[in-house]
Every structure is written in structure tokens, then in C-alpha cells.
DNA sequence: TGAAAGTTCGAACAACCGTTCGAACCCCAT
DNA sequence: ATGGGGTTCGAACGGTTGTTCGAACTTTCA
């Protein structure tokens, strides 16, 4: 890896941490300069501006979590739908815990981009949402499309909300949290679909 | 109600809508002036400043949702724990759908206040979280405190995330969404506690 | 060694921010 | 009508923001 790319990467990680702590809009370029040991003007050699910085962070993180999920599913066969769903949840939650700052920026600043950049990130997000929705379709094939879509977002809510409260250094390790979420959602989802379907 | 209080109320509602749409930090006082048909200086007759405006919106909304939840539970006996839990979920979700803008501001700008104001809102939030956690304790008394706390936040995630995707004017009405969440969570929560408790 | 390419940065700019202040306005009891 | 409290607002202020620019520094390689 070229030293330029390495410094850019380090810069993006540091910036993500600051964005996660203070929020994107109330973080100034001067804050970032101080946190990265760069000069104010020096950062513009690596990034065209503040919004492109946010875009780079979000795009990089989203591509990684998407690729990670796909490869986590690639090892499994198509036979066990709820096992695949559990694997997705496990990957998402552990990835979230391992990249807390970037994922918080991804979740919390979802609407802070504008124009073309917003569109590009939304396109990746759509692919990721569709991936999960497909898994839910395999678990409960008879579910209506509307209810399945709502269930998808509900599950994302369980997982993405953790940036508001979860402490990776606390008592609950990421795998245990992932299993807690997976058991709760899969259990309730499957049960609700099969037993209450007639009511 | 005095005309002053009426105009203040109207102002807070309008401002909440703008905060919900554009975000607190990137909304300017000039934006608010335009959206409320007031002059820039005129708003300062009703509110001490921008942050106090956010505080008033959050405090008012939080007190209402807390009081609403308590009164929704007051009618029920202590006999049926999961029925009480379901009532809480139903109230929270329908309230959310009915006051989308304020609740979005509550969820999304949870850390935008500072100092004393942050403390005051956090105190109300704590009461609200404790209320739900108490309901979960009645549903699963043997659960460890740590897991129960995580389950509480997980359920809040399911409910609060809806500001990112839910359209109250869409195909799913609030009651149906509330039941979907309640069935999914309660089913999975109760099942996971009873069957997997030994593993 | 020398110069070209790659990288850093001090200083400044124009625009915009939240807030203030005093004057003007409106409404109602006298 | 008239005085006075409640209410509105135009205009401006000081400070902060993202961004730019040219000069200076460092590295690279012939």
C-alpha cells in the first residue's frame, strides 16, 4: 500500500471517530485538523471538502459491511434459511462492534449527504437492505411483501440502535449480543408467522 | 389557553417539523423564521435561544410520551405482564406515528443538548427506560440484569428506528405496526428465555 | 548535485451563524 | 384619545465556518 493511501486511510479513521463523537455537522475542519495532527489546509490535499470526507467514510464502511455479509453467507448452503439469517445478524453486529465509530456515522448521518453522493450511498444501502429482505423471504415465504419489508427495518432497528447504548468494552461481548438479537427476532418472527397467521 | 402560550405551542410544533426534516445543527434560525412566518428577532421573544428551543421541544414531547405510557398502563391490572408490555409497545408506536416530527427530533438529536438541559432530558429518559425495563422484568423474572437491559434497548431500537423508514400515510397503519413489533419481540423474548435458558 | 514531483501549511477571504438592541407597532382599559 | 404593557422586527455585531492560494518544505530519481 502506497504511503499516500495509508495516510488517507488513517485520516479517514480518525475523522470517523471525531464525527462519531461530536456529530458531523458540529465537527469543524479545525477540530479534524487537531485530531489528525494535520494543518487545516493540509487536509484538503487528501479530500476535496468536508462533505466528500463524510462520503468517503460512509462509502468505504458500507462496501466493507456489504462484502463481509456476502462472504459470511457464501460459506453456507441454501438449505437452512434461519441459519443464514442468524449468520447475517452475527456478522452485522460483530462488525458494528468492531467498527463502532464508522458504523455510528453510517447510522446517524444517513441523511447528511446531498445530491450525487447521497444517491451513491443510498444505492449501496439498498443492496444491503435487499440482501436481508431476501433472507427473510426464505425464512417466511408466505409473508406479505409489506409485512416483510417492515420486519426487515424492524430488525435493522434492533441492530443499528446499538450505537446509542452499547459499550463494546462492557459486560456483553458482541457475539453474545448478536445471539440475543438473533434468538429474539428469529424466534418471534417465525412464531408470529406460523401461529397467528390465521388471526 | 392564553394567546401567548398558543403561539408558543404552534411555534414549537413548526420548529420540530423543520428540525426533523433538516436536522438540528443544519437548521438556521433564519430557516425557522421563514417556516414560522416570524421575523428572526421575533422568535427570541418566545425562546431564549436555539438550544433552549430544542430543549423545550424534547422536554415537552418526552413528558407527554411518559405520561401517556403511564396512563395506558394504569387501566390494566398487574396480573398479565405480557399484556402490559404489549400495551406499552402499542402506546409508544402509535404515539410515535402521531407525533412523527417531535419523536424524530427526540430520537435523532438525543445528544445535541449540553450541560443542565442535557441532564434534565436524560433524567426523563431514564424514567421512561426504567418503566419499560420494569415491564420486562415482570415478563421474565429470572433474566439476568445485564441481558434484560440489553433486551430493553433492543426493543427501543425496533420502535425508535421507525423514524428512518416508516411512512404513517403508507400501507401499514400504526396499530398494525405496533402489533407486528409486539408479537415479534414478545414471542422471541419469552421463547428465548424459556427454551434456551439451559444452553 | 539539482531539479522536478509530491506534500505541507500560514494566512487570509467571503459567507454565514446565533444573538442583541432599540425603535416601532398593536391592543385594550381608562 | 391616550397612556402603557405586551409584542414584533430591521439592522447590525462579533465570531466562526469551509475553503483557497501561493509559498515552503520533503522526497525521488537521473
Structure description:
The first copy, chain A, is an all-alpha fold. The first copy, chain A, has a single domain (54-195), classed as Tetracycline Repressor, domain 2 (Orthogonal Bundle), CATH 1.10.357. Chain A is 72% helix and 0% strand. Chain A contains eight helices and no strands.
Comma- or semicolon-separated keywords:
8 helices, DNA-binding, 0% strand, mainly alpha, 199 residues, homodimer, elongated, Tetracycline Repressor, domain 2, 72% helix
Q: Quick one: CATH superfamily of chain A?
A: Tetracycline Repressor, domain 2
Please give the largest β-sheet of chain A: none
* Radius of gyration based on Cα positions of chain A: 19 Å
Mean pLDDT across the residues of chain A is 95
What is the H-and-E element order of chain A? HHHHHHHH
Strand content of chain A: under 5%
CATH topology of chain A: Tetracycline Repressor, domain 2
Shape assignment of chain A? elongated
**What is the CATH-assigned architecture of chain A?**
Orthogonal Bundle
What is the chains' assembly state?
A: homodimer
**Number of structural domains of chain A:** 1
Helix/strand/pairing class of chain A, anyone?
mainly alpha
